[in-house]
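Query structure, 178 C-alpha cells:
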C-alpha cells in the first residue's frame, strides 16, 4: 500500500466524497476550525517571546475562571472564522456568557451550531504545558430562517454530528469524529 501525504484540507474534501449527497457544510465548518487553529497555534508558539499576549485579561469567563489574553484572542478567531463561512447559525463558547446568534440572512438558513472551548487550559501556557481547543457540532432544532434558540445548544451527546479537539504544542494535532 502506497501512502501519500495530503493536507488536512485535502483530507476533509476527500472524506466528504465518501458520503453521497453531502452538501459540504460540515466540511466548511471543519475548514473554519482548521483556519482559526492555525492562527491560534501561531500565537501560542510565540507566547514565550511576545509577553503582551501572555497573562490575565482581568475578566472572568462564565465558569468563573480568570480569562487569559489568549482565551479572548482564540475566542475571537474561532467565532470570526465560523461565522464567515455562512454554515452555522450560532456558536456557544466557554468565553461568552451566552450563545451568539448569527442573524444575517445567510447564517439564519444554516443547519448547524457549534459549541467550543477555544483555548482549554490557557493558564498552563505560562508553565509550558499543552493547551487545546475542544469543539462539538450539532444540527439545529429550531426552524431554518428563525433566530437560533437555546434548545439548539442544549442537546445530548448522541445527537452530535461531529466533535473533536486540537492540541497545540511543537506541532498542532487535530482529532475529530463525524
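Result returned for the query:
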Amino acid at each position: 500500500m502506497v501512502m501519500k501525504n495530503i493536507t488536512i484540507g485535502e483530507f476533509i474534501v476527500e472524506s466528504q466524497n465518501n458520503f453521497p449527497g453531502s452538501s459540504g457544510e460540515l466540511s466548511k465548518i471543519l475548514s473554519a476550525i482548521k483556519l482559526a487553529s492555525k492562527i491560534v497555534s501561531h500565537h501560542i508558539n510565540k507566547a514565550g517571546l511576545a509577553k503582551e499576549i501572555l497573562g490575565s485579561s482581568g475578566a472572568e469567563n462564565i465558569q468563573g475562571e480568570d480569562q487569559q489574553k489568549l482565551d479572548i484572542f482564540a475566542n475571537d478567531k474561532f467565532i470570526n472564522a465560523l461565522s464567515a463561512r455562512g454554515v452555522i447559525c450560532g456558536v456557544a463558547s466557554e468565553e461568552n456568557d451566552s450563545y451568539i446568534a448569527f442573524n444575517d440572512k445567510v447564517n439564519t438558513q444554516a443547519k448547524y451550531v457549534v459549541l467550543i472551548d477555544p483555548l482549554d487550559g490557557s493558564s498552563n501556557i505560562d508553565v509550558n504545558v499543552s493547551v487545546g481547543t475542544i469543539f462539538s457540532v450539532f444540527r439545529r432544532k429550531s426552524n431554518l430562517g428563525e433566530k437560533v434558540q437555546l434548545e439548539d445548544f442544549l442537546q445530548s451527546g448522541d445527537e452530535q454530528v461531529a466533535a473533536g479537539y486540537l492540541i497545540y504544542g511543537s506541532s498542532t494535532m487535530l482529532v475529530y469524529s463525524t
